[in-house]
Specification:
The structure is a single chain. With 66 residues, the protein is of the alpha+beta class. The chain starts with a helix and ends in a 5-residue tail after the last helix. It has a single domain, classed as Double Stranded RNA Binding Domain (2-Layer Sandwich). The chain has helices spanning 3-12, 51-61; strands at 16-25, 28-37, 42-48. A 3-stranded antiparallel sheet has the order 1-2-3, covered by helices on one side. The radius of gyration is 12 Å and the shape is globular. Strand 1 and strand 2 (28-37) form a beta hairpin.
């Protein structure tokens, strides 16, 4: 699944991007994504070496029904 497809699915589930940050740690690049769900007050986050991996981690933490 591409990043665009993942973000569309996340938004279709009612989640919104709360924060996205790229950063360097010990000379290595990482990315962080956090999503919020206003109706439930929940949030999930993921981080990794690619946007796709970070969003994949966050999606795995999203309940199917918030």
């Amino acid at each position: 699944m591409t990043l665009s497809e993942m973000l569309k699915e996340v938004r279709d589930r009612g989640w919104m991007v709360g924060c996205h940050n790229d950063y360097m740690l010990n000379g290595k690049q990482f990315t962080y994504w956090m999503f919020t769900h206003a109706a439930s007050g929940k949030y999930v986050h993921g981080e990794g070496e690619t946007d796709e991996r970070a969003v994949e981690i966050a999606m795995s933490l999203m309940p199917h029904r918030p």
